[in-house]
Amino acid sequence: MSLQTRPWRLAVAGCGAAAFGLHLPLLTSHPAFEVTALADRDPARARAAATRFAVPRVAGTTKDLLDGADMLVILTGVHGDLIEAALDAQTHVFTEKPVGLDVTSTRKLADRAQESGLLLEVGAMRAHDPALHAALAAVPDLAGGWLIKADGVDEAARRRLLPPGFSPYTFEDDPPQAVPEQLSGPHQVTALQTLLWQGYHLLTALVLAAPGITPAACTLDADGRSLHALLYGPGAEPVTLVISATPPGRFLEQIHFSGPSDAATVDFARPYESAATTRVTTASGEQSGFPDPFAAMWQAVSDRLAGQYPADLPTSAALAVRVEDLALALAAICRPGPHPRKD
């Protein structure tokens, strides 16, 4: 890519809590970026974001949004059409994860971007998390472990980030997304949604820790609210994955990796709170105060735009395909759990 002598011009689609609480505060203060336009399906929400973050333009159409942009930042719930429009306009793309529910489409979009010489960056924040990488360094030879997420704070946290009068978006507000044809039952579709909407960060950690991980069993409870899975690493190392509903106010996101000589446990910060509260516990003690993985992710995007990111590292699109492949493999073998007895 040519030498850049000005900030990268970003157009942002989607002005929900992630925009207000994470992306726009960082992007509008980062010297490498200039946010030039915003859009949202609720124009009032886009205008509120433009006012708060001093963005000069609210776009009414995708064509208008893309005008003059170097990169489209997609913070909506459904991404495919916007990615296509950006690639049509020869514009780089950053999209929140997952790219979609159908990994076949994700592969096509990633291939199309690469063939066009464009970036398709995916918001896999956990891949840039210093705490996770500290745990991986402590346990270079995985012998087993577990990954757990139980989140009853996300909606309330998102609500606090929005201006008065606006409510958080939900997946139910989004247009339906295509799902892989090989999923034979509704419970398998729910499992895929759970894995990619709630468990994406856990799956990212898992494919980084054990690239050859293989699903062995998966169960979704009768209410479709809790998923349990068993996987094996390339050397038959057992790993348990749990994504569960929890009462409001309760939160747990934890990863534990064990090896032949050490183990590491990561207790992640609550959503939208400082990453400095994340803790890594090993045999040698406890670490905290880690740098912000979200800021590291956007620095990596800036480096890639400038052509300065190491070519031998996998792209975020390649990592996204691996995560979506794993989610699909788990969903395809997922079985519904028994209904609780009422006697």
From TrEMBL:
Entry keywords, A to Z: Oxidoreductase, Plasmid
InterPro entries listed in its UniProt record: Gfo/Idh/MocA-like_OxRdtase_N (IPR000683), Gfo/Idh/MocA_oxidoreduct (IPR051317), NAD(P)-bd_dom_sf (IPR036291)
One GO MF term attached to the UniProt entry: oxidoreductase activity
Protein name: Gfo/Idh/MocA-like oxidoreductase N-terminal domain-containing protein
Record-stated family: Belongs to the Gfo/Idh/MocA family.
Domain Gfo/Idh/MocA-like oxidoreductase N-terminal: 9-123
Superkingdom, natural source: Bacteria
The keyword Oxidoreductase is annotated on this UniProt entry: yes
